[in-house]
Write a structure and sequence with these properties.
CATH class of the largest domain in chain A: Alpha Beta
Distance between the termini of chain A: 77 Å
Radius of gyration of chain B: 24 Å
Shape of chain B: globular
Strand content of chain B: under 5%
Shape of chain A: globular
GO cellular component, one term (chain B): plasma membrane
Largest interface: A-B, 59 and 76 residues
Number of helices of chain A: 19
Protein name (chain B): Protein LplB
Distance between the termini of chain B: 34 Å
Membrane topology (chain B): Multi-pass membrane protein
Helix content of chain B: 55-70%
Structural class of chain B: mainly alpha
InterPro entries (chain B): ABC_transporter_permease, MetI-like, MetI-like_sf
CATH superfamily of the largest domain in chain A: Periplasmic binding protein-like II
Largest sheet of chain B: 2 strands, antiparallel
CATH superfamily of chain B: MetI-like
CATH class of chain B: Mainly Alpha
Number of domains of chain B: 1
Order of helices and strands of chain B: HHHEEHHHHHHHHHH
Keywords (chain B): Cell membrane, Membrane, Transmembrane, Transmembrane helix, Transport
CATH topology of the largest domain in chain A: D-Maltodextrin-Binding Protein, domain 2
Number of strands of chain A: 11
Number of strands of chain B: 2
Largest sheet of chain A: 9 strands, mixed
Oligomer: heterodimer
Strand content of chain A: 5-15%
Number of domains of chain A: 2
Amino acid sequence: MSITPEHPAALDRRTVLRRAAAVGMLATPAIGLLGACATSGSDGDNEQVAGGTKSEKNPLGVKEDAAIEVVIFNGGYGEKYATDVHEPLYKKAFPKAEVKHQATQAVSTVLQPRFASGNPPEFVNNSGEKLMDFGALVADGQLQDLTELWDAPSVDDPSKKVRDTVVPGTIEAGSFNGKPFVLYYVSTVFGIWYSGKLFKDNGWAPAKNWDEFMALLTNIKAKGITPYGYAGANAAYYQWNVILTHAAKIGGTDVLKNIDNLEDGAWKQDAVKQAAAAWAEVGAKFSDKSFEGLKHTDVQLRQNQYKVAMYPSGDWLEGEQKKDTPAGFDYQLMPVPSLSASDKLPATALRATAGEGYFVSAKSKNPKGGLEYMRQMLSTAGAKGFTEVVKAPTVVTAGSEGFAFPPGVASSQAALKAAGQDVFNLYFDGWYKELDTEARTATNELMFGRINADAFVERIQKRADAIKKDSSVTKFKR
Amino acid sequence: MRHGKYPFVIGFLFAPVALYVTFVIWPYAQAFQISMTNWRGLSAPQWVGFDNYRRLLDDGAFWKAVQHHGVLLLALPLITIAIALFFAFLLNVGGKSSGGQRQGVWGAKFYRVVFFFPQVLAVAIIAVLFQMVYRPNESGLINGVLMKFGIEPILFLVKPNLALWSIIAVLVWQAVGFYVVLFSAGMASIPGEIYEAAEMDGATKVTLFFRVTLPLLWDTLQVAWVYLGIAAFDAFAIVAVLSVDGGGPDGATTVLAMEIYRNAFVYSKYGYASAMGVALFFLTLTFAALTLRLTKRESVEY
C-alpha cells in the first residue's frame, strides 16, 4: 500500500470499518425479533364446514367428503402408525374424504404460525421437545372439547361408549379444569429400569423397601458399576419424577394433588422433604458426578454397556434404546421402593399415565373430522395396529390383549397390573412449564450435592408461589 | 453530470431500504409493541403497559444473565484481542527482516489459514464439537487423556464456577481467527519505514509492538472491541447447545438470549420475552455508543 499521507484508501478503510461496526450493532440483538411474527389475524377467518348427517356409522355427524389434515410428531413412535394404520382406517370409513398427512420433529415451529393466523390443521400429535404449550392452547380456546367423542358409541360395539373402552385415568390425564381436551393415547408406566441379565448374573434382586434398596446399591457399587444415575444435562425431570413418586408413596396421592393445585406449602409437605432427603443420599453416595454433564442418551447407552445399573424412566425406554441394547439385556422395571413401613401406599404403587398427546383444533375447518379420526384411533383395529407398529401399549383395553410385548414393556404392564388401584399421576409439569424448569434445576442441585432437601423444597415452593400470584398464567385444578 | 444524481441514488436505495424497513426496522418496532402486552403466541394480545418491565426487575434469572454479560463484556474482548494481537504480530512482523521488509515467523502463511478455520465452522457445530471436548468422562477429549493418567476428570460445564469460563474459552477460540486476520490487515498497512526507523534507534520487538504497532492499529482495535462486545451480548447458540440444562447448572451460564428463548418458546410468554429483547437492545446500543465515544482519540495519520 502506498504511503502517501492523503491517500484516500487508508481513510476509507477506517470509515468503512467504523460504519460496519455501527451496522453490526444494529443487527445483533436479532433474538429481539423472535417475538415479531405476526400477531394480527388471530381469530379464525376460517370457515368451518357444515356437518354431515348423523348415522350409526357416523355418530359424530362428519361431512363425508370434507378433507382433514393430520400432523404427526415424527419422534420415538415415528409416523408409520399414522400413515399405515389410522389414516387408512379413516379413509375406509369416509372414502370420499381426503386425508392430508404431515410429519414434523418440531411441532411448534411448524404449527405456531398456523394457529396465530387462524388456519390450524384438524388433528395434531403435539409431542416432543418442541411441543406447543397445552395450557396456553387451552386458555386460548384452540382445543376442541372432546366430551362429544368420549360419549360417542365406539367403533367396535355401538352399545359401548368410547369412554368405556379405555383404561381408567385416560380422560382425566387430558382434562383441564375438568374438561377433556387432549387424548393421551399411549399407556405409560414410570419406574426404575435395570437389566434383567445383569441382575441375574450377579444374583441381585429388585428392591421393595429402602433397606433392600440401600443394600442393593452397596452391592452394585462393590462390583465397580455405578449403581444409579440419570442425565443432568437435559433429563433432570426423570429424577424429580422419582422423588415425587416416592413422596406420593410416603404421604399418599394427595401430596401430588396439592402440588398440582399449587396449594400453599405443597412442596414443603413432609413426604416431599423425606423423599428428597432419601434420594439426595443416593445421589451423593451411589451416583456419578459426571452424569450432570451428560445427556439422557449418554446415560442410557452406559446402562446398555452395563456401566450403570439402574436408571429412572418411562416405558418408552426399551423402544428408544432398541438399537443400542445388546442381546439378552432384558429390560425390567422396578417400582420406586417404599421408604418405611408407615408409607401410605404399598410398595407396588407406581406412577402411570397415558402419554403422547393428540388434540383436535377447535378453529380448524373440519373439527368433527378430527374427532372422528380419534374415534377410529380408539377402535380395536386402530389400537392393535398402533401397538404392532410401535410395540407400545395404548390406552385401549382391547388393543393390547394377546400381544406379545418385548420384556421391558411386558414387565411394566405386569407391574401396572400388580399395582391395582394404587396408580397415580401428576400434572403440574404440563400445566406450568416454569415450575417444571425450576424443579429440574433444583433436582440437579439436590442430587449433585449442592443443596439439601430443605433448600430443595424451599426454592421450588418459592417458584410455585410466584406462579400462583402471576395473573398472566392460567391456573388449572384437579 | 451533477443533475440527475439524486433520482439515480434514490432509485438505487429504494429497494434495499424498503427491504431493511420491512425485515429489520418493522419487526423491531413490533417487538417494542409486543413487550407491552401479555401475548402468549396464539390469540390477540392484551395491552399491559409496563408490567413486563416491572416484572423484569425481580426476575433473578434476568439479573443473573445481565451479570454474565458483564463478565463476558470484559473477558471476551480482552482475552480475544490480546491473543489475536499476539498472533497477528508474530505472523506479520515477528520474524526477521529481509531487504528492509518485516517478515512473519516461519510458516506464517500456513498458520494464518489454520487460525481462520474456526471461523468457517457453524456455531452450532462448534458447540457440538466442544461437547465432545468437555465431556466429563473417559470419552471426552480432555478428560479422556486426564483419566488415562489417573487424574480425576475436570467437570468443565458442571462446576458452577468453572462453567461460564468454559463457555468463554469456546467463544474466544472461535473468535480469535477472525481478529488475527483483521489485525494482520491493519498491520500490513503500517509502513515498513517506521519499523525500520525504530529498529535503527535500537527498539526491541516488545518496544516495536507497544510503541509502533499498537498506536497505529488503534482504529482496528476499536472496531474489534465493538464487534466482540456485541458478540458478548449474544453467545446464545454456544450456551444453548453446550451448557448443561440450558444455561445451567442453576443458571450459572445463562445469557439474556437464552432467557428470551426460554420465556418465548418454553413458557409461551412472548410479551415478557419481548420485554427482555428490548432490554437487550438497549444494553447493546448503550455499550456500542459508549465504546465508540470513549475510545475516540486522534488517530495517527501516516
